Amino acid sequence: MKFPTNDVTTHELLDDLIDEVRALRRDVRRSTQTTEQNQETTVANLEALQTEVAENTDAVASATALIGSLADELRNAADDPAAIQALADQLDQNTARLAAAVTENTPHADQTLPGDL
What contacts 19, CB < 8 A, 6 or more positions away? Predict the structure, then answer.
C-alpha cells in the first residue's frame, strides 16, 4: 500500500514498515503451521505409546496370573511326582514362550521405535 505524500522519507519509512509487518505475518503463519504439525505428531506418538503401555500391562497381568496359578498347582501336586513333572514341563514351555516374546518385542540398537524422530 502506498501513501500519498510529498515527503519521500516518510513514504519510504511507511513502505518499509508495511513490508516488515507482512514479513512478520508470514513468519507467524509458518510458525503456527509448524506448531500445529508438531502437536499432531505429539498426539500420534502419545496414542501409540498409550497402546503399547496397555499391551504391556495386559502381558504383565497375564504373566502374573500364570505364575500365580503355577505356584498354586505346585502346592496342590506336592505328593504327585508325575503332576510335578507335568507342571515343570509346562513352566519350561511358558518360560520359552515368554523369552521369545520379550526378544521379539525388544528393539535392537539399529531399530527405531514408533514416534522416534
Answer: none
